[in-house]
Amino acid sequence: MDTREIQKLIDFISKSDLNEVNIETAELKLQIKRNVDSGIRYVTAPVIDSPAPVSYLPEHTAPAPVKEAAPETESAPAASSKLVEIKAPMIGTFYRSGGPGKPNFVEVGDDVQAGKVICILEAMKLFNEIEAEISGKIVKILVDDATPVEYDQPLFLVDPS
């Protein structure tokens, strides 16, 4: 069967009510499926107009003076500066365990070694195991289980010491 015959067959199927055709010969196996309604429904949320903000201050009243924030102490940035973020290498859905009912890969306080699986990111129905890039102790898990994450979004804070 040459490409012209295949093209004619595709044109015929597109004009007919057939959803699927399978042809098998000694030298060729051809399966053509029409994209049928997949059952996916898209629903849009109604747009709700919010009222314009109303000011309750009289026209002649001056706004209250703004107090300056207290300067941060040196110990807070120094403590967090040694922590290393493990970031999402892709967009996907974050999972802490290998499946429902299975234990989480890591918990706060766990020691991890570089190369140890710490979570799974699902992208387009592919489950990608994400490994620790550094060795250290998990200080904080920054993402809830089964939530979407963006590329380069911090997932974990690790103390490498």
Q: What class, by secondary structure content? A: alpha+beta
- Looking across the biggest beta sheet, what order are the strands in? 3-10-8-5
Q: In this structure, how is the largest beta sheet organized?
A: 4 strands, antiparallel
Helix content: 10-25%
Proportion of beta-strand residues: 25-35%
Detailed description of the structure:
The protein is α+β, with helices and mostly antiparallel strands and 161 residues long. Among the domains are: 3-33, no CATH class; 81-159, RNA polymerase II/Efflux pump adaptor protein, barrel-sandwich hybrid domain (OB fold (Dihydrolipoamide Acetyltransferase, E2P), Beta Barrel), CATH 2.40.50. It is built from two helices and ten strands, in the order H-E-E-H-E-E-E-E-E-E-E-E. It has helices spanning 3-15, 75-81, and strands spanning 20-24, 29-33, 84-87, 92-95, 111-112, 117-123, 126-131, 136-141, 147-149, 154-159. The strands form three sheets. The chain has a four-stranded antiparallel sheet with strand order 3-10-8-5, with no helix packed on it. Strands 7-6-4-9 form a four-stranded antiparallel sheet, with no helix packed on it. A hairpin with a 2-residue loop joins strand 6 (117-123) and strand 7. The chain is elongated. The N and C termini lie far apart (66 Å). The model is unreliable at 72-78 (pLDDT under 50).
